[in-house]
Write a structure and sequence with these properties.
The chain is mostly helical. It folds into 2 domains: 136 residues, Orthogonal Bundle (Cytochrome Bc1 Complex, Chain D, domain 2); 153 residues, Orthogonal Bundle (Cytochrome Bc1 Complex, Chain D, domain 2). It contains 13 helices and 2 strands; from the N terminus they run H-H-H-H-H-H-H-H-E-H-E-H-H-H-H. The chain has a two-stranded antiparallel ribbon. The radius of gyration is 27 Å and the shape is globular. The termini are far apart.
Length: 366
């Protein structure tokens, strides 16, 4: 009887220890698997976006692109990411006249904003040298004035990080990291960055009113220049900055320089067509108040200077757009009040949600 009691006690103790050990055992980690859950873009009243059929946006792909966009290991000395020249608080550009690369050397042009890329139907960069956004994504990495790194080294660095191998599985179904997949992921993230909720958008939706000055600036913006009836003449901005994205998908020479003073031949360097000399991609005016300095070479520090250029500073050159040359003789005839009203309207194009949306912020600071 005594032996039976001890046997039962020992059995109970062993059972307790087994149960206790099982309770403290770490749960098995979930395997990393491919996830093709679609990423749903929100774009308000903008028309349906022009998305690539061969690179559908997925949650995992956009997240991988977001990680890469903020990853400093894409640069030669691991100090600079895409986001350092395309900052969310400045509508995904920066406020340097020429962005500074990893060797403290300035680039050749002012950084363009990265938002609403899905609504651009022409090519990318100021001169349109990148046909697709995925092509554009890799060029700054290799540019010696920007990130100055080889794509081979980027792949090697990312391959050393388990977090990236796992995310490539989620996004593409394999942990194999390639430059093509890097480009596709960056394209997905940049396509996901959308601006559609400015005061002007809310005005169009009928949920917010413009002030008297803003409304007058809006009328000036969309009214054509008329030298014959000055009282009905406007700032004529819509010819180049029209539509819902406030751009026209063209390359134009907006009369910044005479032929003798042109130092950057712009689109001509890509096409070898003299007719394209000093023509540059027309940018969207959405969030324009957040993105100084202005023009491809950042020559204007303020929007007031930009308005003055179009009002009284057009320079004649062989490829200057006829629309701007047409205004040269009289200027736009804007009064000081006109210019202030136009400036006030331009400020209504700022989208505060774009610069505060956590989905566009660094995933490494959450």
């Amino acid at each position: 009887m005594w032996q039976l009691k001890h046997w039962l006690l020992a059995t109970a103790l062993l059972t307790f220890l087994v149960v206790a050990c099982n309770k403290t055992k770490e749960p098995a980690e979930e395997p990393v698997v491919f996830d093709d859950t679609p990423y749903v873009m929100e774009y308000g009243a903008l028309p349906p976006p022009n998305l690539p059929e061969d690179n559908p946006l997925t949650k995992a792909g956009v997240q991988l692109g977001r990680m890469l966009f903020y990853e400093k290991k894409l640069s030669g000395d691991n100090t600079q990411a895409c986001a350092d020249c395309h900052r969310q608080e400045h509508a995904f550009t920066d406020t340097s006249r020429f962005s500074i690369g990893i060797a403290e050397m300035p680039g050749h042009r002012q950084a363009m904003s990265v938002f609403n890329m899905a609504w651009h139907t022409n090519d990318f960069f100021w001169d349109g040298r990148a046909e697709l956004l995925r092509d554009q994504a890799l060029m700054p990495i290799q540019d010696e004035l920007e990130m100055n790194e080889s794509l081979e080294n980027v792949v090697a660095k990312l391959n050393d990080i388990q977090m990236y191998r796992d995310q490539f599985i989620r996004a593409f179904g394999s942990e194999e990291i390639t430059t093509e997949k890097i480009a596709l992921a960056l394209e997905q993230f940049m396509l996901s960055i959308v601006s559609y909720n400015s005061k002007y958008d809310r005005y169009l939706a009928g949920i917010e009113n413009l002030s008297e000055s803003e409304e007058r600036g809006r009328e000036l913006y969309f009214t054509e220049y008329n030298p014959f009836f000055p009282q009905y003449s406007g700032a004529d901005c819509q010819h180049c900055h029209g539509g819902m994205n406030l751009e026209n998908d063209l390359y134009q020479n907006n009369g910044l320089d005479t032929d003798a003073n042109i130092t950057d031949i712009g689109r001509e360097a890509v096409t070898d067509n003299p007719y394209d000399k000093a023509k540059f991609k027309v940018p969207s005016l959405r969030n324009i108040a957040l993105t100084p300095p202005y023009m491809h070479d950042g020559r204007f520090q303020t929007l007031e200077e930009v308005i003055d250029h179009y009002n009284e500073g057009i320079q004649t050159s062989e490829t200057a757009d006829p629309t701007v040359i047409y205004t040269q003789e009289t200027g736009l005839m804007l009064t000081e009040q006109d210019k202030q009203d136009l400036l006030n309207f331009l400020h209504t194009l700022t989208d505060e949600t774009l610069i505060t949306n956590p989905e566009y912020a660094s995933p490494f600071e959450e």
